[in-house]
Amino acid sequence: AESAPTICGMPLKYFSLITLAVQNAALSIVMHYSRVSTPAAQSYSPAAAVLLNELLKGSISFVIAFLRVADASDASRRGVMGWLSALQRVSREIFSPDCWKLSIPALLYVVQNSLQFVAVGNLPVATFQVTYQMKILTTAAFSVMLLRRKLSSTKWLSLLFLAIGVGIVQIQSSSSSHIPSRQNHPVGSAHESAPLHIHIMSPLKGFGAVTAACFTSGLAGVYFEMVLKNSKADLWVRNVQLSLFSLPPAILPIIWNADPRIYQDGIIASVLRNFGGWAWATVSVQVLGGLITAIVIKYSDNIMKGFATSLSIVLSFLASVALFGFRITPSFVIGSTTVLAATWMYNQPPGQELVAITNVLPV
Ligand code: C5P
After folding, report:
1. How many Cβ atoms from other residues are within 10 Å of residue 330's Cβ?
2. Which tens digit of pLDDT belongs to each residue from 231-245?
3. What is the value of ipTM here, to two decimals?
4. Which residue CA neighbors atom 5 of ligand 1 most closely?
């Protein structure tokens, strides 16, 4: 059996859950600014961002998969032939007969990553984050259906409380910052004093996109977990397969909407048109998120992933209190207490949940 890996003495399971929490807090903010900080005519193509995300994630995963195979076969001591045979072995693993299984989550994730851009561009950050919490429930539902995971009614109740609690925290965090959501550039950022660009939002489109993204998130995550845990194939090989199957659906919209300038400027220049610092930051945070998500799914599961991201929202508000002087409001206290209680309730041993609750209630 594989021994549990550690980073700086901390089990990778906890390290990845914490890193994912921080990454999640950063992504929706960076992505939102990248969409609304420039006029629509000068904004980058989300399809290009989705494609770059897959290319980068796939390349990083390939390098890791290759180095792992090379290390296991002691390639460095066997010279060029050693490296070549490692390359051959990793290619054989990537193009294994069951690689097609990854085509399903690959397609779902490409759809989800594109829907996220539609949602983020049409809803204020907090509204997007609140509604996106529905994925906690869709993920649990798909875990029960596909992984045959048993969830007691107390666990379902704690997941519902988690989604409600994190929703309350987010609704109030947008109002307590007193910054209109469409223009809420970070305090002290270059955008704070910059002229505001008009970016027309369509909340109905945003809500439709976020609802669909919740379903693809739950299904794709659980499907990936099922493929990963039902076979011996390496995580990084599975990630390369996922990225490879993501390429056709990611390239299709780029070809479909190709600008006539593509013939003059070439594909790369056209795809990268208007790709500024915010766009690169969005892609980098997404790549990091994809890699950590894969680790979290392997060493924990999709439901624990939901708890990590919910706690991150509570922590990022507390950070804003410390850094930007946000005020702690009664609804923050109610929302975060609900999140903490839900986390604790979910993690009680079976049959002990209600006993534990009555022990802390003053009855
Ligand atoms: O919102 P959610 O947690 O479902 O998002 C998961 C993200 O992680 C998606 O952007 C998806 O593309 C990415 N991912 C990945 N590799 C995996 C699993 C998820 O890049 N193995």
Report:
1. 8
2. 889 999 999 999 999
3. 0.96
4. 217
